[in-house]
Specification:
heterodimer; A: alpha/beta; 7-stranded mixed sheet; 6-stranded mixed sheet; globular; disordered N terminus; B: alpha+beta; 6 helices; 10 strands
Chain lengths: 736, 179
């Protein structure tokens, strides 16, 4: 049968085939080469260009395949130590970021009220002139301290440079106070070192790993998931502590379905078992411990029987899981987690996790933690930045003593923007972060925005935050640009290139170009002695003694393998105040904090309410990827997980749409019920990042519910300023 | 003769859908359609639960009803390997194969022919692995020749417990799930 007659047949019988409607939508999806597609690529022209991924913060090495001039597929770069040649689902689906029909196409200037999402398209020259003029005016009226920049990911490097040159040091990243901060503080106070990113956990070689609320396999931190699978293959014991029967829980030898908010009670009881049964690493503790006697006497009271009514975990299960950790030491560990801003006592919870690891004597031991190695690439010799003789606005009088100043307290600067104290903040610039979905309490973010004379959003899609911006600058997606190289610390030192695989489809620009042009408009052109970014990157790579052309061709340069474990010769040393592992922290005591972590009962749900928990799906990153049509094809809305008995009680079943109402009366967008055995009866769970309300995000507008919209209440961690966000309770509005 | 098969370790699979996405980009599968998918099966009562996660697709059956029902010969057994393929040019879109497949593995492509997993035969015949197998971040998928007793898939089936899907349908599926 010829092709023509087959098509004719289909036309006649088209109604029964029922695909006509689908076909008509294909023009708007990721059909790069639909017309000329053949299953076998042999006859096509294929180019393979290495770069590194930016669909999350893991930054895996990528090989971009271009077929007949169009982006075809993305694979992991086999020489990349992060991906080992295998990207995660989001990385593989990064193709959809390039073809996303909802992308920003040209610079925009707002023409109506903030939030109405009405703009006019302008040229880059007009947009940057507008921004530069406003910046100069604000600086002359309020000083350079009144402008703040929020950035996520490596792409912010050049904008930071321009802003530093302008005299700005109010520079922030939500990755501290809304994410990793508590963990870094807890570990640094105990061992003198942070965990960092990628995490320094040696899952691959472990004999036993405990995950507390950390849902590996759903959070697709590529190397960790790969190592998790190897640990399972090696027969390692997995212990999972989670109110929800996560994917990881399905792989666990021991599953502890903990009552939310009681993790510190469990950690204290685990440590009680290790100490009272004498199964901790005694030699290690006597050699390296500081204040162990006080700690050991304090821990006596926290028996598994004490913890049972708090956590809901049977004492025997607490004991056997603690013994499993002890039995496998030092190749056993409690994972420090990543998103750790839960209840406001998170730095102390992280410290309890660190102390438990200390009892296992596992710091920098194979099968627990390794010493990360970083490639040393010389910096580009820029002129000195102007003196900035003011304190950042986020943390006046060092109210929070343990803040990483390079990332700062985003909620602190938001507060300063609302109150004008310690000084007024009049401009916000954001790069690749949608602060409305990122930060708890939308209303506070909106109140802060109303006090601004200038809000500039640099992004690839028109996010909720962009809807409030005075100027929106469309950046190219990571597959279309040169960018800062990746020198993340890992098991082997390496450097990865970010270079364009394909051209940007419209008038989007690379962030280095935007930053350099803005600097020129601000009279700071001399801070960019290089003509283009290739010249900058080449200078740095050649100064490190590597070949630029080879770097471009291979995408990854690996350094020499160095010792990363005590077993390989790493010295046993601790960079704490005492030079020891601090079971008792005099540093904390002097500042008026608990020297040993204390368990505090947190507020529990009122009758008819359920604690709102949130987490990740393997196919999306934050609120950034929902318009990617490949990823939305995998998951286009989130569900609210409700225990099946509770769902039955309220007459809800899987697939029903309901709304959630929180304790402050905030009502969510409609969201699908997932009635499941896989969650406790006192909480509900959603994947973060859905429930978009920005009209320009056509592919995801009003699909699913926004967890962050329901997070009106948060508790601030007194040690480091992080926002504990698991403090909200919801009830069900069944009639939609 | 070769007999291609897939052996998938449900102990390692995390259900991340990387296999689904890699297939989509490799084979240009249109929006709204997938050639493979994930099934999560949970049994028990909270908190005593057991979960099996499976990456599923056409089972490339040894006794393929889709081939027998196809009126034009579009659905056929491709040798060597015994892979079930559809010749788009011969397909009239009658959907008899879709009705006969107990695994719901087939769909009508918007261009009007029936489409499904090909075991990435265009890759396999060049000595590469199917896209889903080569992308899997948990290394839970294995592909090879069951006629070769020394192949990885043969050895896994000799040493591990496994099951297939709907064996009672008599289709002799060639995708095996390690448990």
């Amino acid at each position: 049968m010829s092709l023509l007659s087959r098509r004719k047949f289909l036309k006649i019988s088209g109604a029964t085939i029922g695909t006509a409607a689908v076909a008509s939508t294909l023009t708007s999806c990721f059909k790069p080469h639909h017309d000329s597609w053949s299953e076998n690529p042999d006859d096509d022209k294929i180019e393979i260009i290495p770069t590194y991924c930016s669909i999350c913060f893991w930054k895996c090495g990528v090989l971009g395949y271009v077929r007949n001039g169009k982006l075809w597929k993305l694979e992991g770069n086999p020489s990349d130590p992060l991906s080992n040649g295998r990207l995660c689902p989001r990385g593989t689906g990064g193709v959809g970021a390039h073809y996303d029909p909802d992308r920003l196409k040209s610079p925009l200037i707002r023409v109506s009220e903030r939030g109405e999402e009405k703009w006019k398209e302008v040229t880059w020259d007009e947009a940057l002139n507008f921004i530069a003029d406003k910046m100069k005016k604000i600086k002359s009226e309020y000083g350079p301290q009144s402008l703040a920049f929020f950035s996520h990911g490596p792409g912010g490097t050049f904008l930071k440079h321009t802003f530093n040159a302008f005299g700005m040091k109010n520079i922030y990243a939500p990755s501290f106070a809304q994410c990793r901060g508590p963990r870094e503080v807890g570990f640094e106070l105990t061992f003198g070192e942070i965990i960092g990113s990628p995490e320094r956990t040696d899952i691959e070689n472990t004999r036993c790993m405990a995950l507390i609320g950390s849902h590996l396999g759903e959070n697709m931190h590529n190397s960790q998931v790969q190592e998790f699978s190897k640990a399972i293959e090696n027969g390692a014991s997995i212990i999972v502590v989670d109110p929800r029967f996560s994917i990881a829980a399905g792989k666990a030898k021991y599953y502890l379905p903990i009552k939310p908010g009681t993790d510190i009670a469990l950690l204290l009881a685990w440590m009680n078992v290790l100490v009272t049964e004498g199964i901790y690493d005694k030699d290690y503790v006597s050699r390296n411990g500081y204040g162990f006697e006080q700690f050991a006497s304090y821990i006596q009271q926290f028996t598994p029987e004490w913890a049972y009514p708090e956590t809901g975990i049977e004492p025997e299960l607490i004991r056997v899981s603690a013994r499993e950790l002890a039995k496998n030491k030092p190749a056993s560990f409690v994972h420090p987690g990543r998103h750790t801003t839960w209840y406001g006592d998170d730095a102390q919870r992280s410290r309890a996790i660190a102390l438990l690891n200390a009892l296992l004597g596992n710091w920098n031991h194979r099968g627990a933690f390794f010493v990360p190695m970083k490639m040393s690439i010389p910096k580009y010799p820029y002129p000195e930045y102007p003196a900035m003789e003011y304190d950042k606005a986020d943390n006046p009088n060092k109210k929070f003593p343990f803040v990483d100043e390079s990332e700062g307290v985003t909620n602190g600067v938001r507060e300063a923007t609302i109150t004008g104290k310690p000084y007024p903040i009049k401009a916000w610039f954001t790069y690749a972060t949608n602060l409305i979905q990122t930060m708890p309490n939308h209303q506070e973010t909106l109140r802060a925005i109303q006090n601004l004379d200038l809000l500039v959003v640099v992004d690839v899609i028109p996010s909720e935050l962009a809807g409030y911006a005075d100027v929106v600058l469309p950046e190219t997606v990571y597959l279309e640009r040169w960018d800062e190289m990746n020198t993340a610390p890992f098991k082997v030192p390496f450097v990865g290139i970010r270079q364009p695989v394909v051209k940007a489809p419209d008038d989007q620009k690379e962030n280095w170009w935007i930053a350099k042009k803005l600097a020129e408009k601000l009279g700071l052109g001399h801070y960019y002695p290089w003509k283009n970014i290739e010249e900058y990157l080449r200078y740095r790579i050649e100064s490190a003694g590597y070949n630029w052309d080879e770097f471009k061709k291979k995408g990854i340069i690996r350094g020499n393998k160095e010792p990363i474990y005590i077993e390989e010769g790493v010295p046993e040393e601790f960079l704490t105040a005492s030079g020891k592992v601090e079971f008792y922290s005099t540093t904390l005591e002097e500042l008026g904090f608990d020297p040993i972590p204390k368990y505090t009962k947190h507020e529990t749900a009122a009758p008819g309410y359920f604690r709102l928990l949130f987490g990740r799906a393997p196919v999306h990153t934050f609120s950034m990827t929902q318009t990617n049509r490949i990823l939305s094809d995998m998951m286009d809305e989130n569900e609210v997980w409700i225990n099946v008995d509770i769902a039955n009680k309220y007459g809800m079943k899987t697939g029903d749409y309901i709304r959630l109402k929180n304790q402050d009366g905030v009502i969510s967008n409609k969201v699908k019920v997932k009635a499941t055995e896989r969650i406790r009866t006192d909480c509900v769970y959603m994947v973060h990042g859905f429930g978009h309300t920005a009209k320009g995000l056509k592919g995801t507008y009003m699909k699913g519910a926004s967890d962050s919209g329901l997070i009106t209440k948060y508790v601030v961690d007194p040690l480091m300023g992080g926002t504990g966000m698991n403090m909200n309770f919801v009830t069900f509005e069944v009639e939609v | 003769m070769a007999r291609y098969a897939m052996v998938i370790d449900t102990k390692k699979c995390v259900g991340c859908m990387d296999c689904v996405i890699a297939c989509k980009t490799e084979n240009n599968v249109p929006e709204g359609f997938n050639r493979d998918w994930i099934t999560y099966e949970t049994i028990g009562k909270n908190p005593d639960l057991h979960m099996e996660i499976r990456s599923e697709r056409c089972n490339h059956c040894d006794n393929p009803p889709c081939v027998y029902t196809c009126p034009t010969g579009a659905s056929h057994i491709h040798e060597p390997g015994g892979t079930i393929l559809v010749t788009a040019e011969k397909c009239i879109g009658c959907k008899a194969c879709i009705a006969s497949c107990p695994y719901d593995a087939r769909f009508v492509h918007p261009d009007g022919y029936v489409s499904k997993c090909t075991f990435c035969i265009h890759r396999v015949e060049k000595g590469e692995l199917p896209a889903c197998v080569s992308v899997c971040p948990t290394y839970c998928m294995h592909f090879g020749d069951l006629e070769d007793a020394e192949s990885e898939v043969s050895k896994l089936l000799q040493s591990r417990k496994y099951h297939t899907l709907l064996p009672e349908a008599g289709t002799k599926p060639q995708i095996f799930y390690l448990t």
